[in-house]
Amino acid sequence: MQELWLEKITWDDALNSKIASKWTTLRSDLEHVNGIYIERWVGTTCANRESIELHGFSDASIQAYSAVVYCRVMYPDGTNKTTLIAARTRVAPLKTISLPRLELCGALLLSRLLKQVGQAMRIPATQIYAWTDSSIVLAWLFGEPNNWKVFVANRVVEITTNVSCSQWYHVQTQDNPADVGSRGMLVENLKKCDLWWHGPDWLQQSKIQFTQPNIIQTDIERKNNKIQNYKITYNKNEQEKRLLTQFEEFDTLLELLRTITYCRRFLKQKTLKDRIDSKITTEELHMSMQICIKRAQEEEFTEDIDSLKTKKRVKKTSKLKALDPYLDKDGTLKVGGRLRNSELANEVKHPTILGHASRLTYLVVAEAHLKTLHGGVQLMITYLRSKYWILRAKSLVKQCIHRCLICAKHGARVKTQLMGDLPSFRVKPARPFLNSGVDFAGPIQILIKKGRGAHTGKAYIAIFVCMSTKAIHLELVGDLTSAAFIGAFKRFCARRGRCTNMWSDQGRNFVGANKELVEAWKEARLQFDGEISELLANDGTQWHFIPAYSPNFGNLWETGVKSIKHHLRRILNTNLTFEELTTVLCEIEACLNSRPLCPQEDSTLEPLTPGHFLITEAPVTVPDVNLKDAQISNLTRWQYTQKLLNDFWSRWQKEYLTRLQQRPKWLKREDEFRIGDIVLIKQDNLPPGKWLMGRITDKHPGPDGLTRVYSVKNGDHITKRCVTKLCALPIEID
């Protein structure tokens, strides 16, 4: 079973040949269990017995450690009867530990077993003997526990408590029956193993030679640091300081007060009949709080308290001089103030003074944060001022809110990074739609057929955007399947030409389409050889996916979707058929491709639009003079169109490209997340309190060396997320 765990084999996985062979051997060997007979009577109730002894043996291997106990009954005629009483075996832990430590674990298992059997059979401790073949374990048992490391020291103390170290002896490995339990043996061989059933041969003799190693000293597991003997003295102030440092071990004020209450009950307990664990009363919690306050005040305001006890006034250099403090009848430092004549409650007129650096003050502020239901700064200060006057309270309250995990979740802000440089395919001239992005919009209700009572269905719009010219191509598809998208993609390529690089988000239809296109290219390479294979490989479309849930990486097509919806909302007032909606989309496409790429400063020039790169003019224009009958030679016409195209690209570089120089937002470099940081994963369909937490496992820096995409682990899944979907937690959390 441990090997199955180490191999990480799940419930339905097939076993490998090695483990399957072991299991088959064990299962077939279990048939021999019927041939094993264990004698019930051990001879302890015989009238003529002389004495009864218990002998236990322990051993360990890298696979397991075991303990076995035998009952040895001696008779007056010199004969002895040895019987197996009990045995226990433990598998070695998955975490690798040394063999001496495993031997010590075996000795611990034996000591517990001997104690249990001895109590059950009512055998005196002087007639119980323990055996081990490890000299190191004996050295540990006969040594001082304080000299060993914690692992060894704790076990040595328990072993010697169960079985005295004077009753431990050394046995040879070949005479140790526990070796069978630690190394394992098949049942077929176990039936014939006399060492296991009756112990070593010398155990049945009249006299036993008890041996211990000559040298029982070892440096294994010995503490490295030398403890010097010196006398420790504490005065009253040092003891109180130790008490205040223990406040750091508590996370809530109620936990601290309950602990002090139980300690006070224990110190005041007169008889055993007094119940310490009875219900805590309000008066007891109040007394515990007063004790904590006085100790905290004595630590931070020692000089002020001494001055009030003698001179009745604090020093001029004191930070409490503006509060006019005084000591009440219990010796607690309180605010004198100027509100003695008001009708406020006494606690509000004279609140208790607490310092800023005390752990108790932070626990009080944290308690107020919970009482005010995670309130803000002003609400918490108002709540605290009704009972306490805390120095520098505002900064302490802000610190408490900043460390609160719940408040950090609800107030989390996504992280940004300096806006990256534009990629090469957006700033270099290229044929329209050679580098494109694609996205889907919809659904849109369409009529199945014309006429009264016709049913409606759904349709979607596939938007193809040119990365260089921002030209848009629209295709109407019937569903979001990969097959429907591949059909739209083929129509797009047939009318706009080959697409070398295609970008999209990680929608399921796009991922499926990418897989099907890859399989198609593989099949094409298998069917054709030579130049045709190379031609198909060169004409293939390279697909690129942006990180999941990162719309800012696909700003071009997201803007196109917004523009399309703008026109559709204004012209669609009834449901159209598939053909009618296709016509409307073609008109919208013409309008979008007629938009100027940038504001036109010179009114004499025609604005540069995406349509100029497609048909050398804007698709939606005012009709011009018909030049059908003009006498222009073919060569002159071809040169003229080439000149127009070059002029368009020249204007594209001068007018449009230069406007992309500035960064509209994300203007400064931000500190990057470190691997191992805990972050919140922003989810648009959930409130901040329900956002999942994840751990940064990897960074994916861009060409400029700045990281905008991270690998985040949540549960057993690792996904890539854009930095704008991650929120830094302003607290340290494991």
Report the principal-axis shape: flat
Helix segment tally:
25
Structural class assignment: alpha/beta
What is the makeup of the main sheet? 6 strands, mixed
Low-confidence runs = 225-236, 525-538, 622-628
Mean pLDDT figure: 79
- The CA-CA distance between the termini, in Å, is 32 Å
Radius of gyration: 43 Å
Helix content: 25-40%
Q: What percent of residues are in strands?
A: 15-25%
Number of strands: 20
Brief rundown of the structure:
The protein is of the alpha/beta class and 734 residues long. Residues 225-236, 525-538 and 622-628 have low confidence and may be disordered.
What can you see in these coordinates?
The radius of gyration is 43 Å and the shape is flat. The protein starts with a helix and ends in a 6-residue tail after the last strand. 23% of the residues are buried. Helices cover 38% and strands 17% of the residues. The longest helix has 23 residues, at 99-121. Mean pLDDT is 79; it is low at 225-236, 525-538 and 622-628. It has 734 residues and is α/β, with parallel strands linked by helices. The chain has 25 helices and 20 strands. Strand 6 and strand 7 (333-334) form a beta hairpin.
SSE topology sketch:
Layout: H1 2-7, H2 17-29, E1 51-60, E2 64-74, E3 80-91, H3 99-121, E4 128-132, H4 135-142, H5 150-162, E5 168-170, H6 178-183, H7 187-190, H8 194-198, H9 236-245, H10 253-268, H11 282-300, H12 302-310, E6 326-327, E7 333-334, H13 346-349, E8 352-354, H14 359-371, H15 377-385, E9 388-390, H16 393-403, H17 405-410, H18 424-427, E10 435-447, E11 456-466, E12 472-477, H19 482-496, E13 501-504, H20 508-527, H21 531-538, E14 542-545, H22 555-571, E15 576-577, H23 578-592, H24 611-615, H25 634-656, E16 678-681, E17 692-701, E18 707-714, E19 717-722, E20 726-728
Parallel strand pairs: 1-4, 4-5, 8-9, 10-13, 10-15, 13-14
Antiparallel strand pairs: 1-2, 2-3, 6-7, 10-11, 11-12, 16-17, 16-20, 17-18, 18-19
